[in-house]
Write a structure and sequence with these properties.
The chain is an all-alpha fold and 565 residues long. Among the domains are: 86 residues; 42 residues, no CATH class. 70% of the residues lie in helices and 0% in strands. The protein has 30 helices and no strands. Helix 20 packs antiparallel against helix 21. The protein is rod-shaped, with a radius of gyration of 37 Å. 42% of the residues are buried.
């Protein structure tokens, strides 16, 4: 096209459309025949006036064209009937929600050039229609509303370009070019044409529907909602409007409003696949994984290779339904269909990272590749962080958390952040993390343990630590939580025997408390009781055989002549 209207921001469109709706439509041109200049062919002028009314293409101008064509005393009866037939044909194809009563029409002569041209267009024989005659070019443009074939679009676009030379405004021509561009998936250009159609006539409700559709694809959900708001008074009860409204609310992330609208539309059209996927996604977001699954199964029968569907199905399988193998199969299929897709790679790497040793190794390779091309990739950072923690590389883990928080401000794993900062020696940041965590979850076991650790080990605030630990132990809690608090309480004891007794109490709660085992080893090694030291170190090594600090202790014990297997 030589002339593509520029896209208009949603706010500007809304203001413009509201202004258009608030004003009285421009008077419909009556046709020059009503005020023919002296010496002019009055019949030709009246014919031209009727054609301009039909070409303008708004419901009121089409109705006026029918009135003039039927009442004309200057035109042959067959011409009047043919023009009325053309006007009714325009209403039928352009305004499908406007019902034309059969009794309102009258027979048209099939041999008339206009009627013959319309018949040829209906059969797809566009080359049978004379080109270069403005009214015939207008009729050819109507073919866009009957067929979505590329050849029809090509011929119609040429006809539209020829028609535009006349300078006559036509809401139908703009609307048709919007449809052509929508079908080509040039949604910005399509929206420009739909907007132009509405500017020509605010009676052109299909332009608002078109704008809503393409703005959902741009995407501009708010712009779609603005167009739909103008349609609601007249078309809010129609299925098409409800479908678009539900989709627009969904795209605007207004899920609470969208769900009932989408559900209602699906009751009337249960095969609306786009809405099926939207409803499944909203149920997934609500944690209703079992309710989402039948919808995903239904969608699989329609578009089994759809990218968004594959991603949602994988997520609903895992972590939703805890079917990791099903999720993995789905994502491997998605990766083969959409190689290089970042979202699919991210999701696949996350599922792999929760699998076998070989799968975790594959996830690490993927995460490293993603990180190399996108250092702010939150998924890659999260997987690499888990590996840092596994390797006990706390300095790297702490740095990774800094990057992760910058990439994804919503990330908030307080436990992992506190552990990394504290073990990396970034005590001030660890303390800030513990305080924030404790403020958010004052009764949470993790938050209490983190705060107690800061009070005991870092601030040496014995009084505050003792109060917090005593109160928390009295309240009960899980064995692991109590074991950790007892380990920390051992630092507050005044004598070695009391310290040993408290550490042993910690192990009664959790025999796998590595810190308590190591602390008991250190006490008995200092006392020269190598038999007891060996006992606790052996237990610790059974839990963490590759720990470098435990290996150092094993070597020092061996220098004392005490061997460990």
């Amino acid at each position: 096209m030589n002339r593509v209207p520029p896209p208009i921001p949603a706010a500007a469109v809304l203001a413009m459309l509201l202004a258009a709706c608030a004003t009285t439509p421009a008077p419909v041109p009556e046709g020059t025949a009503l005020q023919a200049p002296a010496g002019a062919d009055a019949a030709a002028a009246e014919r031209a006036g009727i054609e301009r009314l039909i070409e303008r293409g708004e419901p009121s101008s089409l109705a006026k064209a029918v009135e003039l064509a039927r009442s004309s005393a200057r035109l042959p009866k067959d011409d009047g009937a043919a023009y009325a037939y053309a006007a009714f044909e325009t209403v039928r194809v352009v305004y499908p929600m406007t019902v034309v009563s059969p009794s309102a029409e009258s027979p048209a002569p099939q041999s008339h050039p206009i009627v013959s041209a319309i018949g040829a267009i209906r059969m797809g024989k566009l080359d049978a229609v004379p080109a270069g005659v403005p009214f015939m070019d207008f009729l050819v443009v109507l073919s866009v509303f009957r067929s979505d074939s590329p050849e029809t679009a090509r011929v119609a676009v040429l006809a539209a370009e020829r028609f535009r030379v006349t300078g006559n405004p036509s809401t139908v021509v703009e609307l048709a070019m919007g449809l052509v561009n929508e079908r080509k998936e040039d949604f910005v250009a399509a929206d420009g044409f739909f907007t132009a159609a509405y500017v020509v006539s605010n009676e052109c409700y299909p332009a608002l529907f078109g704008s809503a559709r393409v703005r959902l694809r741009i995407p501009d959900a708010e712009g779609a909602l603005a167009a739909l708001a103008l349609l609601e008074p007249s078309f809010g009860s129609t299925l098409e409007w409800r479908k678009l409204e539900g989709a627009a609310l969904y795209r605007a992330s207004r899920f609470e409003e969208a769900l009932p609208v989408v559900t209602n539309a699906l009751t009337e059209d249960p095969f609306a696949s786009d809405l099926i996927l939207m409803r499944a996604d909203m149920l997934y977001r609500m944690g209703l994984y079992r309710q989402a699954q039948p919808l995903l199964d239904a969608y699989a029968n329609v578009r089994p290779n759809d990218r968004d569907f594959l991603l949602l199905r994988a997520r609903n399988y895992y972590p939703g339904l805890k079917k990791r193998d099903e999720a993995l199969r789905t994502l491997r299929k998605a990766a083969s269909l959409y190689p290089g897709d970042r979202d699919i790679e991210s999701e696949l790497s996350l599922v792999l990272s929760a699998g076998t040793q070989e799968e975790r190794a594959e996830a690490l390779v993927m995460a490293a590749r993603m990180f190399a091309t996108d250092p702010a990739n939150a998924t890659a950072l999260s997987i690499l962080l888990d590996e840092d923690v596994r390797l006990r590389d706390w300095a790297s883990a702490a740095a990774r958390i800094d990057r992760l928080r910058a990439a994804d401000p919503s990330w908030k794993d307080r436990a992992q952040a506190f552990a990394a900062y504290h073990k990396a020696g970034r005590i001030a940041e660890a303390a800030a993390e513990a305080e924030a965590w404790f403020a958010e979850e004052p009764g949470g076991e993790g938050a209490i343990a983190a705060m107690a650790r800061v009070l005991v080990l870092d601030r040496k605030d014995r009084k505050a630590a003792a109060e917090l630990i005593s109160k928390s132990l009295a309240a009960g809690g899980s064995p692991g939580f109590r074991s950790e608090l007892l380990y920390l309480q051992s630092f507050l004891q005044s004598g070695e025997d009391a310290t040993i007794a408290t550490l042993r109490s910690s192990l009664i709660e959790n025999i796998e408390n590595l810190e308590a085992l190591t602390a008991l080893y250190d006490i008995f090694y200092r006392k020269g009781d190598y038999k007891q030291a060996r006992f606790y170190l052996k237990l610790a090594l059974s839990l963490e055989p590759g720990d470098t600090e435990l290996a150092r202790r094993r070597n020092e014990l061996m220098l004392k002549g005490v061997a460990l297997p």
